[in-house]
Amino acid sequence: MCSPAKAVKADLTLTSTDNQEFQVHSYHCKAHSTVLRDMLESPGLNESAIPIDATGRELRLFLNLMTRWEVLNPSDSATWLRLLELCDKYDFYLVRRRLKQRLRVYSYKSPWDAFCITSHLDELDIAKKAIKRFGSLTGQKDIELGRMPFQMATQPTLPYLLGLLHGRNLVAHSDDPSWAAVSEIFYPAT
């Protein structure tokens, strides 16, 4: 299968914020995005290229998610959030759902990152799964307010961070002080 940046017989060009051009099939965009479908079906559209508010790297990942099953995951939390923001901006419901499914799997590899990402999405079920996996991480078994580095504390949203710390404090002196126990009672602070 060819790269989504140079699709064979493509009839649409998407341009990233860093001026990279991606030749794509308009039917993919119409099928996945109500915003782009409306734009492409507008009789007043005279542009040969449609600007997309994403870098070339982000747009390449995004197009891979839209057109392929086997794709790489975003490499960092900021890219995950940026791709999800693009899904919302252009109403790519299926790509958003696919990203969230990949985030569930990503939580096995990087539970802390997955927890932070889900805190911004307010995805409680994925956050709980990520918390349950904290015990497998070296150096993150004792997440406590006094010991957490500032940079780490700024990654999740405040309600999720406070909920995590509260849950950890509640189970710290119980019969089961595991992260699995924290995940069962976890709820973001209100």
UniProtKB/TrEMBL annotation:
InterPro entries cross-referenced by the UniProt entry: BTB/POZ_dom, SKP1/BTB/POZ_sf
Protein's recorded name: BTB domain-containing protein
Ranges for domain BTB: 10-102
Domain of life: Eukaryota
SUPFAM superfamilies (alphabetical): POZ domain
Organism (species): Kwoniella mangroviensis CBS 10435
